[in-house]
Backbone:
């Protein structure tokens, strides 16, 4: 009998046999769970889910109430393939924000197609906006599953700097590098798909400010106008937007440009309720489109539905119905918003305690959302050193991610001290 690898080589083609299902986040979560099960005094900063100070998953009571009110049909039936109409309208409103009507009055049409979480929206864009072998443009520090999604679609990633080395205005956007990447992609593949995780970037917790958003927007507008025969898609991954100071800042940035918007640039949102509604496992999201040409969007909806039908069939109906109910019921929406706002305050308290206790450590800019991030050339070694203090974090490709969302408030300073001591022990310098 052959070993497993030998059999895999016979039964599976090379592209499949090379896959590995292990995820570094869940691997380090498992290490924390094992240490906790052994009775050790440990802190969990691994998982990207909002936990309370006792380590229990936070669940927004508005969602629980909405689910109890749903008729049985919405709990068990299929969803229409594009998504429930009420949910699609809700997704557009939540993704784009209160200026949706103003955006449409200015000349944009908008549409949405339901997806199983924000990941589903990313997948839909990858399958339909590029050809196999093309590159997706991302920032140089990014959520690891971006690469997994790209791999599954036969695509690769190319990046531009998370922050500029220097900028005369003090802004974080490296406009020169971004414009260069856009030009290179136009030359090499004739179209561009960019995934921009903002606001409340994963894994850093960084949000672009108004000037920085405008810098990015102008880079895309200029590239699109200079290359009218190339297609440009700017997709905003806004999974954590409702834990940011400006959850709909991109709408504010875009509206002044609509009058002179180039036809070859489409704006999309990868919208997710996973974080905003604390329904991580119910898998509820949407891809939302905005473009001046209504006919283009009418053509795109069935294309994206086709991809969904051939992948997950239809997105789950229950969370769509629950989210739509919440945002069409003033009492439920008020309950949801009050709970979410309280959760945001908790995150800020945790972040402040963490950063204050590790003030000499070099963090990437972090001001919103679920995470903070320490860039490091050897993140595994740094994480291992941190575990000696009973703290479990996640080593990513370019640094260590701290799940501000999962660590207890009372332990935030402890985690900061653990990072600081490990940083010093390994001889790191800012």
Residues:
């Amino acid at each position: 009998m052959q070993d497993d690898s030998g059999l895999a080589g016979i039964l599976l083609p090379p592209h499949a046999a090379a896959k590995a299902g292990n995820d570094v986040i869940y691997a380090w979560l498992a290490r924390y769970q094992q240490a906790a099960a052994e009775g050790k005094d440990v802190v969990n900063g691994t998982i990207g889910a909002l936990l309370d100070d006792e380590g229990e998953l936070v669940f927004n009571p508005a969602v629980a109430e909405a689910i109890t009110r749903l008729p049985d049909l919405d709990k068990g039936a299929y969803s229409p393939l594009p998504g429930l109409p009420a949910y699609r309208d809700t997704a557009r409103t939540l993704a784009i924000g209160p200026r949706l009507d103003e955006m449409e009055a200015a000349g944009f049409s908008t549409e949405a197609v339901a997806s199983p979480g924000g990941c589903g929206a990313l997948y839909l864009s990858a399958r339909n906006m590029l050809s196999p072998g093309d590159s997706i443009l991302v920032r140089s520090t990014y959520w690891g599953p971006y690469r997994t999604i790209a791999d599954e679609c036969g695509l690769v990633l190319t990046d531009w700097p998370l922050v500029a080395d220097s900028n005369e205005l003090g802004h974080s956007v490296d406009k020169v590098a971004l414009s260069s990447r856009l030009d290179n992609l136009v030359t090499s593949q004739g179209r561009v798909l960019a995934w921009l995780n903002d606001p409340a970037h994963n894994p850093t917790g960084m949000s672009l400010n108004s000037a920085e958003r405008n810098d990015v927007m102008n880079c895309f507008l200029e590239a699109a106008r200079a290359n009218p025969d190339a297609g440009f898609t700017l997709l905003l991954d806004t999974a954590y937007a409702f834990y940011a100071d400006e959850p709909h800042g991109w709408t504010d940035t875009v509206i002044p440009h609509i009058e002179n918007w180039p036809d070859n640039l489409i704006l999309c949102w990868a919208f997710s309720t996973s974080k905003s509604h604390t329904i991580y496992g119910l898998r509820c999201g949407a891809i939302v489109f905005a473009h001046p040409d209504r006919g283009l969007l009418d053509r795109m909806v069935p294309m994206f539905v086709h991809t969904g039908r051939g992948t997950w069939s239809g997105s789950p109906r229950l969370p769509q119905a629950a989210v739509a109910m919440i945002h069409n019921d003033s009492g439920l929406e008020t309950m949801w918003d009050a709970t979410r706002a309280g959760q945001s305050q908790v995150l800020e308290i945790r972040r402040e305690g963490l950063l204050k206790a590790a003030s000499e450590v070099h963090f990437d800019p972090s001001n919103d959302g679920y995470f903070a991030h320490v860039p490091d050339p050897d993140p595994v070694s740094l994480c291992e050193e941190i575990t000696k203090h009973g703290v479990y974090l996640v080593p990513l490709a370019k640094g260590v991610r701290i799940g501000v969302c999962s660590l207890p408030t009372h332990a935030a300073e402890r985690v900061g001290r653990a990072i600081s001591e490990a940083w010093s022990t390994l001889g790191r310098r800012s």
Summary: The chain has two domains: 4-60+332-425, 80-315.
